[in-house]
Amino acid sequence: MGSNIINGGTSILRGPASEKSNVELVNGLRSNFAASKEVSVPAENGDANHVADEHSQIKSNSIPSALWTTVDNDRLNVPSNNHEVTGLAEERSDYDITVKLFLLPKTAICDWRRHLQDAVAAVLQELNVDSIDLLIISFPGVSFDADSDEKGGCGSNKIQATESELFDAILDVWKTVEMLQVKGVASKTGVAEFGCEQLKKFLPRTFYRPTVNQINVRDACVVPQPMMELAKQEGIELLTHNDCTNILPQGTLRELLGNGPSGAGVLAGPNAKGEGLEGDLNPEWVVKYTAVVRDRGVIEHKGYFASAELSQGLAT
What we know:
The chain is of the alpha/beta class. The chain contains six helices and ten strands, in the order βαβββαβαβαβαβαββ. The protein has a ten-stranded mixed sheet with strand order 2-3-1-10-9-4-5-6-7-8, sandwiched between helices.
C-alpha cells in the first residue's frame, strides 16, 4: 500500500498575470518548502531569534525533513500542516471563493471521488470556511480545442481509459459534486475543457448541471461560435483560463522533492542515495483556490494543494 504525500502552498502566491498555473504552482511550492525549512531551524536550535548569515546558513538539503514535515497515518504533509489557520480577514459573505481541482492523468479513475473530497476538505480547512462559491473540475483526457474540440492542451493529458470509461468516470465524480451542492458546500459548479459534443452528451445525464465551462482558447483568443450558441442555449457561463491540464507532471514533482540542487530533500536520490523516501512517485491531484474580496476585487488568498502517491514508505 502506498504512502500519500500532500504538498501545500499557504496563501498568498503572487506572480505575473500572464504566468501559467504550472509555473506558479512549482514556484509557490518551492518557495513554501524553503520557508518552512528556514522556520524549522531556530526551533531545532532552541533559538527563536536566530538570524541566518553567511556563516550560520544551513544548506537546505541538510535539514532533516522530519523537522518541517509531519506524518498523519499514511500521509506525509510537505510542509507540515500544523501552522495556525488564520482564515479570512472579513466576513465570509464578503468573498467569492473559487476552487479548481485538477485530476491528473495517471490517477486511477476509481479514486477520483475520494480525491475530490480530500481536495475540497483541504481548502475549507485552510480558509476556515464551510462553503465555496464555485467548484470547477478539470478531468484528464478532456481538453478543448478551438478548431476541433478534440486536441490536447499543454503537456500530455492522456489517460489509459476508453472514451466510454472516461465518460462513466466523469458522471460518477459528478455525483459527488452534486452531493456537495446539496450540502451547501459548493454554491455553483463547473467543468473545464468540455467541447460542444461533450457538453451535449453530459448535460442530460446530470441532476445539478454545471453553470460554468472553463476553456483554454490558447492563441486564438476567440471562442468558437457553436460553443457560444450552445452555452447561451443551456445557460452556461464560458470562462477562459491559462492553466495546463497536466499541471504537475511526475518528473517535475520528483525534482521538487528530490535531493538535487533545487530539490527539497524529501525523496532519496538515484539508486537510493541519501536519506528520504524511496519508490515511484505518482501525482494524483492539484487544487487551486482563490478568495476575492467582492466589493474591491482584491485577491486576499491564493494558493495550491497537491497530492501524490508513493509506492513505498520511508527509506531506512
